[in-house]
Write a structure and sequence with these properties.
With about 160 residues, the protein is an all-alpha fold. The chain has helices spanning about 10-35, 50-70, 90-100, 110-120, 135-155.
Protein backbone atom coordinates (compact mmCIF):
# COMPACT_ATOMS: atom_id res chain seq x y z
CA UNK A 1 0.00 0.00 0.00
CA UNK A 2 1.40 3.35 -1.00
CA UNK A 3 -0.15 6.43 0.55
CA UNK A 4 -0.01 9.62 -1.50
CA UNK A 5 -1.55 13.06 -1.76
CA UNK A 6 -1.20 13.03 -5.53
CA UNK A 7 -4.40 12.74 -7.58
CA UNK A 8 -5.04 9.23 -8.84
CA UNK A 9 -7.61 8.95 -11.57
CA UNK A 10 -5.90 6.89 -14.26
CA UNK A 11 -3.60 3.90 -14.38
CA UNK A 12 -0.85 6.08 -15.88
CA UNK A 13 -0.95 8.30 -12.78
CA UNK A 14 -0.62 5.26 -10.54
CA UNK A 15 2.42 4.07 -12.49
CA UNK A 16 4.00 7.54 -12.25
CA UNK A 17 3.53 7.70 -8.48
CA UNK A 18 5.01 4.23 -8.03
CA UNK A 19 7.98 5.28 -10.20
CA UNK A 20 8.53 8.33 -7.98
CA UNK A 21 8.54 6.10 -4.92
CA UNK A 22 11.07 3.75 -6.54
CA UNK A 23 13.35 6.70 -7.34
CA UNK A 24 13.12 7.96 -3.78
CA UNK A 25 15.27 5.08 -2.59
CA UNK A 26 17.93 5.83 -5.17
CA UNK A 27 17.97 9.45 -4.02
CA UNK A 28 18.42 8.24 -0.43
CA UNK A 29 21.39 6.12 -1.52
CA UNK A 30 22.89 9.14 -3.31
CA UNK A 31 22.64 11.15 -0.08
CA UNK A 32 24.34 8.35 1.83
CA UNK A 33 27.14 8.29 -0.73
CA UNK A 34 27.42 12.06 -0.59
CA UNK A 35 27.34 12.35 3.20
CA UNK A 36 29.01 9.18 4.48
CA UNK A 37 31.26 8.20 1.62
CA UNK A 38 32.40 11.47 0.11
CA UNK A 39 31.99 13.27 3.43
CA UNK A 40 30.33 16.53 2.45
CA UNK A 41 29.34 17.13 6.07
CA UNK A 42 32.96 16.76 7.25
CA UNK A 43 33.98 19.78 5.18
CA UNK A 44 34.54 22.76 7.45
CA UNK A 45 34.72 25.54 4.91
CA UNK A 46 33.98 29.09 6.01
CA UNK A 47 33.38 30.78 2.67
CA UNK A 48 30.03 30.13 0.99
CA UNK A 49 31.61 30.02 -2.48
CA UNK A 50 34.15 27.41 -1.40
CA UNK A 51 31.45 25.29 0.21
CA UNK A 52 29.38 25.46 -2.97
CA UNK A 53 32.38 24.40 -5.09
CA UNK A 54 33.07 21.48 -2.76
CA UNK A 55 29.44 20.38 -2.90
CA UNK A 56 29.50 20.31 -6.70
CA UNK A 57 32.77 18.34 -6.83
CA UNK A 58 31.73 15.84 -4.19
CA UNK A 59 28.28 15.38 -5.74
CA UNK A 60 30.03 14.37 -8.97
CA UNK A 61 32.05 11.72 -7.10
CA UNK A 62 28.95 10.47 -5.28
CA UNK A 63 27.17 10.06 -8.61
CA UNK A 64 30.13 7.99 -9.86
CA UNK A 65 30.11 5.76 -6.75
CA UNK A 66 26.36 5.12 -6.79
CA UNK A 67 26.24 2.70 -9.77
CA UNK A 68 29.24 0.83 -8.36
CA UNK A 69 27.45 -0.03 -5.16
CA UNK A 70 24.15 -0.66 -6.95
CA UNK A 71 25.89 -3.29 -9.08
CA UNK A 72 26.22 -5.46 -5.96
CA UNK A 73 22.49 -5.47 -5.36
CA UNK A 74 21.86 -7.54 -8.47
CA UNK A 75 23.65 -10.71 -7.40
CA UNK A 76 21.72 -12.89 -9.84
CA UNK A 77 22.99 -11.00 -12.87
CA UNK A 78 25.96 -12.55 -14.66
CA UNK A 79 29.42 -11.07 -14.22
CA UNK A 80 29.62 -9.93 -17.83
CA UNK A 81 26.23 -8.23 -18.12
CA UNK A 82 27.37 -4.66 -17.35
CA UNK A 83 30.94 -3.60 -17.93
CA UNK A 84 32.81 -1.19 -15.72
CA UNK A 85 33.08 1.27 -18.62
CA UNK A 86 29.72 2.70 -17.53
CA UNK A 87 31.61 4.30 -14.62
CA UNK A 88 35.33 4.07 -15.48
CA UNK A 89 37.15 5.00 -18.66
CA UNK A 90 39.82 2.70 -20.09
CA UNK A 91 42.83 4.01 -18.17
CA UNK A 92 41.21 3.84 -14.70
CA UNK A 93 39.88 0.30 -15.09
CA UNK A 94 43.23 -0.88 -16.44
CA UNK A 95 45.05 0.70 -13.50
CA UNK A 96 42.52 -0.94 -11.18
CA UNK A 97 43.12 -4.30 -12.88
CA UNK A 98 46.90 -4.00 -12.55
CA UNK A 99 46.55 -3.01 -8.91
CA UNK A 100 44.12 -5.80 -8.07
CA UNK A 101 45.28 -8.65 -10.31
CA UNK A 102 48.98 -7.85 -10.75
CA UNK A 103 49.01 -8.77 -14.45
CA UNK A 104 48.15 -7.24 -17.82
CA UNK A 105 44.53 -6.23 -18.22
CA UNK A 106 42.31 -8.22 -20.58
CA UNK A 107 41.12 -6.83 -23.90
CA UNK A 108 37.50 -6.66 -22.76
CA UNK A 109 36.69 -4.57 -19.69
CA UNK A 110 35.61 -6.47 -16.58
CA UNK A 111 32.16 -6.24 -15.02
CA UNK A 112 30.91 -3.32 -12.98
CA UNK A 113 30.50 -5.69 -10.05
CA UNK A 114 34.19 -6.65 -10.25
CA UNK A 115 35.19 -2.96 -10.37
CA UNK A 116 33.12 -2.17 -7.28
CA UNK A 117 34.67 -4.97 -5.25
CA UNK A 118 38.18 -4.10 -6.51
CA UNK A 119 37.74 -0.45 -5.51
CA UNK A 120 36.34 -1.52 -2.15
CA UNK A 121 39.36 -3.78 -1.66
CA UNK A 122 41.61 -0.75 -2.24
CA UNK A 123 39.62 0.97 0.52
CA UNK A 124 40.22 -1.88 2.96
CA UNK A 125 37.12 -4.02 2.36
CA UNK A 126 37.58 -7.58 3.59
CA UNK A 127 33.93 -8.67 3.85
CA UNK A 128 34.36 -9.92 7.40
CA UNK A 129 30.59 -9.79 7.97
CA UNK A 130 29.97 -11.81 4.77
CA UNK A 131 27.48 -9.31 3.39
CA UNK A 132 29.26 -8.86 0.07
CA UNK A 133 28.48 -5.14 0.17
CA UNK A 134 31.10 -2.57 1.12
CA UNK A 135 30.05 0.57 2.92
CA UNK A 136 30.24 4.08 1.54
CA UNK A 137 33.34 4.94 3.56
CA UNK A 138 35.20 1.96 2.14
CA UNK A 139 34.20 2.80 -1.42
CA UNK A 140 35.23 6.41 -0.95
CA UNK A 141 38.68 5.45 0.42
CA UNK A 142 39.16 2.98 -2.41
CA UNK A 143 38.12 5.61 -4.96
CA UNK A 144 40.68 8.08 -3.55
CA UNK A 145 43.42 5.45 -3.69
CA UNK A 146 42.50 4.58 -7.27
CA UNK A 147 42.71 8.25 -8.25
CA UNK A 148 46.15 8.48 -6.64
CA UNK A 149 47.33 5.49 -8.64
CA UNK A 150 45.91 6.85 -11.87
CA UNK A 151 47.76 10.11 -11.24
CA UNK A 152 50.95 8.12 -10.57
CA UNK A 153 50.59 6.31 -13.90
CA UNK A 154 50.07 9.62 -15.69
CA UNK A 155 53.15 11.12 -14.05
CA UNK A 156 55.21 8.05 -14.91
CA UNK A 157 54.19 8.37 -18.57
CA UNK A 158 55.50 11.93 -18.67
Amino acid sequence: VLLTREPVEHEAQIRQIVRYDELRWRIEEFHKAWKRGVGIERQRLQCTENLERMRVITAFVAVRLLPLRESLRHTAEPETSTTCTTVLTTEPWQVLWLTNQGRRPPQAPPSLRWACLAIAKLGGFTDTQRTGRPGWDTLWHGWVRLQERIEGVRLAKK
